[in-house]
Design a protein that fits this description.
With about 425 residues, the protein is of the alpha+beta class. The chain has a single domain, classed as Orthogonal Bundle (Cytochrome p450), CATH 1.10.630.10. It contains 17 helices and 14 strands. It has a 5-stranded mixed beta sheet. Strand 1 and strand 2 form a beta hairpin. The longest helix is centred in the middle third of the chain and has 32 residues. The two termini are about 35 Å apart. The relative contact order is 0.19.
Length: about 425
């Protein structure tokens, strides 16, 4: 999604804008639209040509209310616009599409397995994966960091889940097809979304079957052993949650990488500030997450009549919380259209908010922190080497192509070449 810096509130008719249109996020200017809505129509109802409708919520505090309050807004009917007006078959079975107490029973054990403390032992391995990722910068030619980053999460998520490395490229492609079925680069026809879901669900069902008799300390094995109440998860519940974990990993991390690097290209003074004080890398990661806001929206349905910003919503209505808009709300963020690597406080909602706050956020933060530590260590300056291409998706604010070149620090090329030469061909589950 294009990240623009509107100088004033645009004078536009919200009825003339289709926030569900994936092309808006590929070639349009959603930040200008969101700014106008935040200031004039913070809770706005849009009706699509086929008669379906949803409420758009664009202010930070309203977005938080929608995401945190399961007594007013349910996740069980569907959480993405792709399921608008069609009850999600994963409702009540997948953690992301369930409400407490089912959601709580699934989330608590997974949160412990994916806590920062539990993942600490993975940091040396992730650092080696980062060296593998950025090693092409040593070649001195244009390198598409967005395309390369798309495969980055599978290097650790695939390993954590115990998925064979030979399957990672196809799984990465399938998750992109699932979140951007209308993008010409990833589309396989009108049935792309259904086909991607079918292949992913079938893949995990087969994986469960082939590993049923083996010792399995992976995340898939963890799900197999989980209980909800007094029972183990059923196979369909395990499959849905495997899909959700994989999708979540592949949605946030690569697009946060590309979005942050593009901000460094556009704001070289901010990158220079970071190189002078590597101690602010953690803050820079948070600003990159706020700035790029890779998860673009989450949807809920009203459980009863309620009110947001003075607007009455009836029971059973779809409500879409736009995270990228919330992360530019001037009521919360000073100079929200300024990229500031040292921003503090930075209470962004890039990982959501409330009970459904992303369970994989600690892993994403670790991976992003290590990546940008190594970027700062090796790269003195980035330059854009070709046009930026944005993903056609109303769910993921993504960059699919960002060619860059880098001026490396003294000795960086030799270190990267040495790391590439020493890298084993295959990572194994520890």
């Amino acid at each position: 999604m294009r990240i623009t810096r509107p100088r004033s509130v645009p004078d536009l008719d919200p009825a003339a804008v289709d926030l569900a249109d994936p092309q808006l996020y590929a070639t349009g200017d959603p930040h200008a639209v969101w700014l106008a809505l935040r200031e004039r129509n913070p809770v706005w109802r849009q009706t699509l040509p086929d008669g379906r409708s949803f409420w758009s919520v664009t202010r930070y505090h309203d977005v938080n209310d929608v995401l945190r309050d399961h007594t007013r807004f349910t996740s069980e009917r569907g959480t993405l616009l792709s399921t608008l007006a069609v009850d999600d078959p994963a409702g009540g079975k997948m953690m992301a599409a369930s409400d407490p107490p089912t959601h709580t029973a699934m989330r608590e054990p997974l949160s412990k397995a994916l806590s920062a403390r539990s993942l600490r032992r993975w940091e040396p391995r992730i650092r080696r994966m980062v060296h593998r990722l950025i090693a092409p910068l040593a070649d001195g030619v244009a390198w598409d960091i967005a395309e390369a980053s798309a495969a980055f999460p599978m290097a650790f998520t695939g390993t954590l889940m115990g998925l064979p490395e030979r399957d990672w490229p196809r799984l990465t492609q399938l998750t992109t097809m699932a979140i951007a079925p209308d993008d010409a680069e990833f589309s396989e026809g009108r049935g792309t979304l259904v086909a991607a879901h079918h292949e992913l669900f079938e893949y995990f069902a087969d994986h469960l079957h082939t590993t049923r008799d083996s010792a399995d300390d992976s995340l898939v094995g963890f799900l197999r052993g989980m209980t909800v109440g007094e029972r183990r998860l059923r196979q369909d519940e395990i499959v849905y949650n495997c899909y959700s974990l994989l999708l979540g990993a592949n949605v946030t991390t690569p697009h946060a990488v590309a979005g942050t690097v593009l901000a460094f290209v556009e704001e070289p003074a901010q990158y220079a500030r970071l190189t002078l004080d590597p101690g602010v890398v953690a803050r820079a990661v948070e600003e990159g997450l706020r700035w790029s806001s890779p998860a673009n929206h989450f949807m809920r349905y009203t459980k009863r009549e309620t009110e947001l910003s003075g607007v009455r919503l009836g029971a059973g209505e779809a409500v879409v919380a736009w995270l990228g808009s919330a992360n530019r709300d001037r009521r919360v963020f000073a100079d929200p259209f300024t990229f500031d690597v040292a921003r503090s406080p930075n209470r962004h909602v890039a990982f959501g908010f409330g009970p459904h706050y992303c369970v994989g956020a600690p892993l994403a933060r670790i991976a992003l922190r290590i990546l940008f530590e190594e970027v700062v260590r090796h790269v003195a300056e980035f330059e854009q080497a070709g046009p930026v291409e944005h993903l056609a998706s109303n769910f993921v604010a993504g960059i699919k192509h960002l060619p860059v070149t880098a001026r490396l620090r003294p000795g960086a090329a030799e270190r990267l070449d040495a790391a590439r030469a020493a890298e084993p061909r295959r990572e194994v589950v520890p």
